[in-house]
Amino acid sequence: MEFQDKTLTCIDCGAEFVFTAGEQLFFHDKQFKNEPKRCKTCKSKRIAILSSPPSSRGEGHHYNRVETRATCSQCGKDTTVPFRPTQGRPILCRECFTQRKTAASA
Q1: Which of 31, 50, 82, 103 has an alpha carbon within 20 to 30 A of 23's alpha carbon?
Q2: Range 3-20 burial, b when 16+ CB lie within 10 A, else e
């Protein structure tokens, strides 16, 4: 299979960039299905943002925390849990969770 340079448009800045034949061969060898969407500059910026610590991105886990009301499977007490429960898995209040955790490590 022979590849030829292609001109693509960056989805972030709208600038055109060249997807070289060599890059296409690399993508083909790695079995990547999609062409690149960003120019090298925008890709570098995105990687820098995504690899920075969450606090500097303003996305600390306490901002995205989910609190769900539930009933403890063990003692029946109303409680809240920091996740969305899935069917078939027990929900434990803090006390029962701590007891089970302590018992498991003993």
Answers
A1: 50
A2: eeeeeeebeeeeeebebe
Looking at per-residue confidence, does 63 or 24 come out higher?
A: 24
Give burial (CB, 10 Å; 0-12/13-18/19+) of 49: exposed
Rounded to an integer, what distance in angstroms lies between the CA atom of residue 38 and that of residue 46?
9
CB atoms within 10 A of CB 93: 20
pTM higher than 0.90 for the full model? no
State residue 24's pLDDT score: 95
Coil, strand or helix: which one is 4?
Answer: coil
Residue boundaries of the structural domains of the chain: 6-57, 68-105
